[in-house]
Amino acid sequence: MAQSAATPQHFREWVPTWLKAVVALFVLFPVMLINGAYTGSSVDISGFLGVWSEDINMAYFAASAGMAMAYPVIPIVKPVATTKTIILTVLFAQLILSLVCATTSYVEIIIVASFFIGYFKAFSLMEIILIITPIVAPSGTRNEFYSKFYPITLTIGQLSLVLTAEFAYSYQWQYMYYFMIVLLLIAMLLVVIFMAFGRKLIRLPYKEVDWYSFFQASCVMMAIIYVCTYGKTNDWFASKNILYASISIPILGWMFIRRQLMTDKRPFVDMSVLKNRNSVVVFLFSFLMMFMASFTTLSSAYVTSVLRLDATKSNELFLYMIPGIILGGFICYYLYRWAIRMAWLMFIGFACFSLAIGLLYFNVQPTGMYEDLYLPMFLKGLGMLVLFVAMGVYSIQGLEPQQLIYNAFFLICARSALAPAVASGVMANWLYRAQQKNIMVLSESVDSLNPAATSLYNQTYTSSLAQGLSIEDAKMMAANAIYSKVQIQAVTVSIKEILGYMLIAGIIILVVILLYFFKYRAVRLVKVGQDLT
């Protein structure tokens, strides 16, 4: 009854239930789609601005960091503003920031704008969740809600990669920002027309926010992201910037934790969440989940460097995650109805990742086919959805209602901000080092006694002469052909080597899940129709 009574305050009285769902989902679409930097068009943006692709990745990860930093502030802002006021304010702020990103030529501004776009995204996302919960999950249980909500949000996330790549390929990279501005304007118009009870803020609660803690936590996350993103480019600790950022991480982290534990006022983050074993386990496994999911970095390198396809084809692979995501939603919903043991859901999710990595390991080869990547991406979508839902339900076991928002802070930090940045940095550096090593190893056997190398050299040399090239140019073309062949082989071997280690890690994780989760009494899972909280 409480849910039903609270629902009319969001919309005008004449708005039917089906229209409420349509409006909420349409507002959700730009909220989930927007970002300060879009990795699908990172090559185009970096080429236009004359910056590194790492700069664009930094901006992308900064949005996740900003989103995490918003969660401790939400309980302070929520009591002094209505849903309509919050949504309109943050949508307008994101519109302005998107316009800034589209028109600026300074990547530093894009990074800062991305941070605040993610910050404002958290506010609008929380409000939309409050609106659609009674519509999407009439039972009011988190297991039903997550099984329906995560397929929507993860699907939108995959579409964003394809949309940005298509806009950059067909038009210019700025058009994605202009497209988002149009969507935000339409969303704001829908909010003004259909939602009710919009009023000005009673007061700005800026004094109640511990901005010093906000600054400390933001700097820690951004420093970690900076080190992981620029480490390979700047040769790690040979760079003073990397060294200074690395030193600042433990210092600022210790200062932040000490301030939360020693303050007499309301702490910025309730650290008691870390006393809950279930939450800590989920934070750890969320990190491992995103690390295992980073095998798409290797598949992208395989598509562009071995199969010699463009970045658009690489981004289109993410579309094949969508069927897996949708199937995962159905699986989670019905498994929760049967109250299946949580360990099996965790096992299914990581098993999908391990199987996807295993398929890639055996399919990656110089003569491989693009279609061989469809099934691994499908399995990734399935595994990710199952783990998102399972961990979302498992992490709140044993927490008080007032601790849930801080649990979300730690979860977003681990799952969305830090894990992708760390995994991306590790994968990029690992692939680069392995590729250089394998090029040296393979080059040692490339000489006049190697029949394959000699045949390729003579064939290319003869073909170049037949095309009218000079002898010197023909020799250069033949040498380049051999180097290209060696490079493709080196990338292939490097990718298979990394995938092999990841497959071993996946098997170890599966064993740990069986040993750890089955060691304890089964977590009680309520059936759909009962209130989980």
Topology:
Elements: H1 2-6, H2 17-33, H3 42-49, H4 53-70, H5 74-77, H6 83-103, H7 107-136, H8 142-170, H9 174-194, H10 211-230, H11 240-262, H12 277-293, H13 295-306, H14 311-316, H15 321-337, H16 342-363, H17 374-394, H18 404-443, H19 451-466, H20 471-517
Quick overview:
Keywords: Membrane, Transmembrane, Transmembrane helix. It is a multi-pass membrane protein. By secondary structure, the protein is mostly helical.
What can you tell me about this protein's structure?
By secondary structure, this protein is an all-alpha fold. The protein folds into 4 domains: 1-206, Growth Hormone, Chain: A, CATH 1.20.1250.20; 210-267; 273-425 and 494-533, Up-down Bundle (Growth Hormone, Chain: A), CATH 1.20.1250; 438-493. The chain has 20 helices and no strands. The longest helix has 47 residues, at 471-517.
Task: Identify the notable features of this structure and list them briefly.
globular, Growth Hormone, Chain: A, 4 domains, 20 helices, 533 residues, 0% strand, disordered C terminus, transmembrane
Uncertain segments: 1-8, 526-533
For the largest beta-sheet, the strand count, sense and barrel status come to: none
**Tally of helical runs:** 20
CATH top level of the largest domain is Mainly Alpha
C-alpha geometry: globular
Subcellular location: Membrane
Protein name: Major Facilitator Superfamily protein
Keywords: Membrane, Transmembrane, Transmembrane helix
GO cellular component, one term: plasma membrane
